[in-house]
Amino acid sequence: MSEPVKQRHDFLYLFDVKDGNPNGDPDAGNMPRIDPDTGHGLVTDVCLKRKIRNFVSLVKNEEPPFDIYVKEKAVLTRQQEKAYQALDLDPKKTDASAIDKAKAWMCQNFFDIRTFGAVMSLKEANCGQVRGPVQFSFARSVDRVAPAEHSITRMAVATEREAKDQSGDNRTMGRKFTLPYGLYVGQGFVSAPLAAQTGFSDADLDLVWQALLQMFEHDRSAARGLMSPQKLIVFRHDSALGAAPAGKLFQRVKATLNDDSKPPRDFSDYTVTIDRENLPAGVEIIEML
Asked: I want to staple 8 with a disulfide (CB 3.0 to 4.6 A). Which of 179, 193, 237, 281 is the partner?
């Protein structure tokens, strides 16, 4: 493994959706997530992390040191037992020393643990808790979004009983929700001190950047429509602690609707500007897209 990241990074990730649902809410019939007070769309940090995990899983084949801890149908105790087996420790007799060793092993072998952290303090095979150096905010749309509901028909039924009830018509009615268009901005943070604790390296960070630029290409579905990355703007500090507050740096980036008399339907309807004047000493702006 290469050396841990030594510089703080803050970044803005702009992505959009056309005629799709970027992040459905299961508590609301899978409608797109909306801020009820403002009408702005939301995409959770968990959604973005899941897409990064899936991309890394695809690229690295879930092989150490790029195994994935939180993945579909995973049993987390079994994942943690791998550490105790590799270190020849008893998973039922966990003391502080064993937990620390198991935690270090998990960070070394699982990409998402050393990147995002994990709570692994289970009763058996306790691997403690890890604070991850890479974190995301909820992504929020630049403007209000207008969810649309569509009725859809499947020309088949699931059971013989349904077919009999319909006298062979065999139609199943359903619905789906989409947004005509939405441009979202997510905020991200990379902590160098936490990277030193988990072993998160520059190579790992490059893989995160690669995922953000390519993950939508391998996450297509009928429900999500066309999702595309549009901008990845990184504020790289020259030290571990950083030279300026992230919030102040993020204010330097503006996405402005060119014509507010009509709703946006494409990224070209916006102009993105970056204020590079009087940038704080020790901060560099890098546009990756």
From this structure: 237
